[in-house]
Amino acid sequence: MAHAASPVLSEPNFEDALEAHRLAPLVRGSVTTLQVNVGKRCNQACHHCHVEAGPRRPEMMTYEVAKRVLALLACSPGVELLDLTGGAPELNPSFRWLAQEARRLGRRVIDRCNLTVLLEPGMEDLPDFLAEHRVEVVASLPCYVPENVERQRGHGVFEKSITALRRLNTLGFGRPGSGLRLDLVYNPVGPFLPPPQAELEAAYRAELRRGFGIEFGSLLTITNMPIKRFASFLARAGHAAAYMSLLVHHFNPATVSGLMCRSLVSVSWDGALYDCDFNQMSELGIGAPGVGTVWELDSLEELTGHAIATASHCFGCTAGAGSSCSGALA
Predict the structure, then answer these.
(1) Interval 288-311 mean pLDDT
(2) N or C, where is the chain less crowded by C-beta within 10 Å?
(3) What is the pTM of this model?
(4) Mind listing the pLDDT tens digit for each residue in 53-67?
(5) Which residues are registered as beta bridge partners of 273?
(6) Domain 31-238+261-306 is of which CATH architecture?
(7) Whole-number Å distance between alpha carbons of 286 and 252
């Protein structure tokens, strides 16, 4: 007797979820953040990395692309923030120039830092540069327990991260009244949602202060997206379907109004435009028609009012308390 074919599981549809909750398709409002991935080279190769960054990645933004990004920023007065990411963005030769020139334009600048890069050869003066130009540091620290950090990021990473945090604190980062912002980022070390952000922040603050004398501003909880390296981890462990089901069944309509793609534009190392960093790593092009790169715009404000491209990984930003590059949404 012939056996019936196994049913093919379809990808969950984010647009259908919006419609089921009587929510309109995603459309970009005013652009206030320009997030730029300056390259995929990194001194680490973390298990959860949605960029699949690592020491051997060759992708790196050229000075010519960086110049065009800065020119576009200068022509977009509504954009308040330049968010520099990677890989380890500091490894790009144009990183300091981009940060310095954006500050000269009066824009806030974020350095999404993995902390250990500050201890790399040639980076000894980087903390001083960040302090001098008042660049905001958003630093990855998956846990205040060494074993959890090293399980995700590799042997010795926790100790190096603490050393880097102490150096930043010495310069005033994270200290009340200094004006030098230092926030930490938590990513779950497994296939589950982050705990409540406020509760986890209190635990981080108590443990880092008690154990190491470290101060910081805020803790940002970010859900791991089921793409690239984390998706491969899920598949190897047999957790891919369960994790996606977790995200879908914890869809929270209250998070949709605050999704970062509504006010952010993402630029890749080669100048291509995307609706967010996760779409960039999934190679899901920007939803606005007729534009694909930084050379096809005169101002980022041209993207206001255009549709945002979505896919199943968008459930990661809307699950539970929600997730964005600025932490929880609800």
Answers:
(1) 96
(2) N
(3) 0.93
(4) 788 888 899 999 999
(5) 267
(6) Alpha-Beta Barrel (3.20)
(7) 24
| Cα-to-chain-centroid distance, residue 246 | 21
- 117 within 8 A of 90, measured Cβ to Cβ: yes
- As a residue count, the chain comes to 330
CB-CB contact of 318 with 252 (8 Å): yes
Q: Report residue 191 as tokens.
A: 């296939």
Sequence ranges of the domains in the chain: 31-238+261-306
Helices 95-104 and 63-74: crossing angle, nearest 10°? 20
Give the position of tokens 């470290």: 214
Q: Is 68 exposed, middle or buried (0-12, 13-18, 19+ CB in 10 A)?
A: middle
Retrieve residue 247's tokens. Answer: 């995200």
- For residue 5 the two structure tokens come to 């074919």
Is residue 11 left, alpha or beta, with left meaning phi > 0 and alpha meaning psi from -120 to 50?
beta
What is the DSSP-derived secondary structure letter of residue 172? T
The C-alpha atoms of residue 267 and residue 278 are separated, in whole angstroms, by 11
Q: What is the largest distance, in Å, between two alpha-carbon atoms of the chain?
A: 76
Name residues whose C-beta falls within 8 Å of residue 305's C-beta, 6 or more positions apart in sequence: 27, 28, 29
> Cα–Cα distances in Å, from 31 out to 80, 86, 223, 261, 329?
9, 21, 23, 9, 18
Pull the structure tokens for residue 285. Answer: 């092009």
pLDDT beyond 60 at 238 = yes
